[in-house]
Amino acid sequence: MQATMNNHIIHLKHCYIDNPQAIWNVSYYGVDYELKFTHETFDEGKIIIIRSEIGFIDSNTFLSWLSVFFGEDCTDPFQRQDTRSSFNRGKLQASQKLLQDFLNAAFLKEENIPTDRDKILFRQTMNYYLAGLRSGISMMPLTIGFFGLSMECVGNLVSDQNSEYHTLGSFAFEKLINKSFEPFKKDREHGKNYRTWQKYIKIDSKLVHFIRNAVYGHSLLHIPDERQKLVKNLHQWLKMAGASDKDAEFWFKAERLEIDFQTHAPGLYKIGLRSARLLIFLYLGIIDSIPFTEHDYHPFGEFPKNQTMKFNGMSISISIVN
After folding, report:
1. I need a labelling partner for 65 at 20 to 30 A (CA). Which of 104, 105, 125, 200 fits?
2. CA angle at 93 for the pair 131 and 26, rounded to the nearest 5°
């Protein structure tokens, strides 16, 4: 099914939307949009059909913001059905109101970016994030490099030292994380959860940095010490996610790291995605209403027992018998 002038189709690749309200009506920059999540030709929740009153969907603004909100590549002009990895992130629960509040925050931020320097950095933040989405799992682990560059740009956006450029390894974006989390960590009921979440974020950020340096940019993978540092951080990530020491050591080994990168590409992709996406939300002033999926913070998605995967007009059914 091809998009028409007032009918734009987005195929979700890494998640599916669990939404009892089949149609959302939202507005952005004074333009009204209708988002529909069902169609007789496609799997429910794995497609977004967008209609606009002006008959044109601006990929530089509205679709870019949808890419942040859903964590999916909504700007790709060559959309195609591909549900092979929809279990990787799993179910996403959101609402029309949540999206409208997000779009309002995005509009307000765009209208109030103070300097030309910040406008350029913010545009690059978005460009690198979108490049990461477009590269996807198939380009892992290089994809991590794009997400890392997006995070690097955010670090410079929130830095007080405008004359100095901060690289990813300086973790300048932690200033934004600390400021955003501080009031929530003081909450008596939920403060502990936010403190734990911040620990996960710190581990994620270090891992994005190590992977980026290993395979994208500095290309340090050929240095034995760097390989060992990276493997150590990969083990830490898995153990934080619930893996045993034995399992973590089995899943990532220095001598076969290139193969392990490919084997665990879906899980590693989510680290880059959630890290870069989180920082954009925080920059917009949003922390307590970010629509994460059920498996965004899990190394592995839950592969359904009976799954029909669709790709390029083909359907592949897989049944798992206990």
Report:
1. 200
2. 75
SS3 172: coil
- Cis ω for the linkage preceding 291 (within 30 of 0): no
**Across 129-155, average pLDDT:** 95
Cross-strand pairs, 47: 11
Alpha carbons 280 and 126: distance in angstroms, whole number: 8
Amino acid at 54: I
Tell me which residue of 288, 137, 148 sits closest to 204, measured CA to CA.
Answer: 148
| SS3 category, 249 | helix
Q: Which residues does 308 contact at the CB level (< 8 Å), separation at least 6?
A: 83, 315, 316, 317, 318
pLDDT in tens, 286-316: 999 999 999 999 887 676 666 666 666 666 6
Task: Say which residue the tokens 């620990």 belong to.
Answer: 199
Residue 315's nearest CA partner among 81, 136, 88 is 81
Which residues on neighbouring strands pair with residue 32, listed in sequence order?
A: 27
Contact present, 276 and 71 (Cβ < 8 Å): no
Helix 174-185 / helix 191-215 crossing angle, nearest 10 deg = 170
Return all residues near 271 (Cβ < 8 A) that are at least 6 apart: 144, 204, 207, 208, 237
Proportion of the chain in helix, strand, coil states, percent, rounded to 5? 50, 15, 35
> Alpha helices, DSSP H only, in 21-95?
62-70, 86-89
Separation between Cα atoms, residue 193 and residue 134, nearest integer Å? 32
Q: What is the DSSP letter of 308?
A: E
Determine the Cα–Cα distance for residues 209 and 196; give it in Å rounded to an integer.
20
Banded model confidence at residue 280, pLDDT cuts 50, 70, 90: very high
Q: Greatest CA separation found in the chain?
A: 61
Global model pTM greater than 0.85: yes
Mean pLDDT of 241-250: 87
CA 67, CA 56: separation in Å to the nearest integer? 17
